[in-house]
Structure formats: structure tokens, C-alpha cells
Write a structure and sequence with these properties.
This protein is an alpha+beta fold and 116 residues long. The chain is built from two helices and four strands.
Length: 116
Amino acid sequence: MASVISANVCYKLVFFVPSASLNTCKTAMIAAGAGRFPGPGSYTECCWTTTGTGQFRPGDAAKPHIGALGQLEQVEEVRVETLCVGEEVAREAVNALKKAHPYEESAYEMYKLEDF
């Protein structure tokens, strides 16, 4: 018997956001359909978060939300991981994240998942 996940193409969206913008970004990607687990429990708004330190140096043409041009910046950020069921949901979640994220270049990763 195939699992519910293997019947769907699933992706994991991972993104990094400053702590002050965490809820805005989570709300946006959840509204786009991310964070829903396709099992019989009908779980929604599922994600995993952990706090760490992000580092970057804005280049001469940057318009940084935090920090100054040419200066090394270290910021408390949150890593968020969530499930996206289906490519359309994955793409919509990324688009929503980009609109909600305060940085001009939002850092995110998308992984296609396999069920064993």
C-alpha cells in the first residue's frame, strides 16, 4: 500500500528570515498552501524553526533592509522548514515568501522529497 505522501509530489521549503519578520513570512507561505501534511490527520500550519546567526556584507549596489553598504553584518535569523504538497503549492509558497520577506534577496532552498 502506497503512503499518502508517495501519492503526491512533495517538497521541503527552507528559508531564513530575521526574527522580527518571522510571523509575517510564516503567515504568507501558509496562506499559499505550505505547511499542510497530506495524511489522514489533516494537519495544517506545520513547520519547524530554529534560531541562528546570519552573516552578509551588502555590495555597492545593494539596498539592505538591515546593515550598511560594504559593512559586514551579523543578524539573528530563524531557519524555517515546511512541507509543500505539489509543485504548484511549492511555487506559490516561494512567491508569497518573496513578497513578504524584508530582504531584497530572500534566502531559501527547495528540496524535492522522496518517500521510502
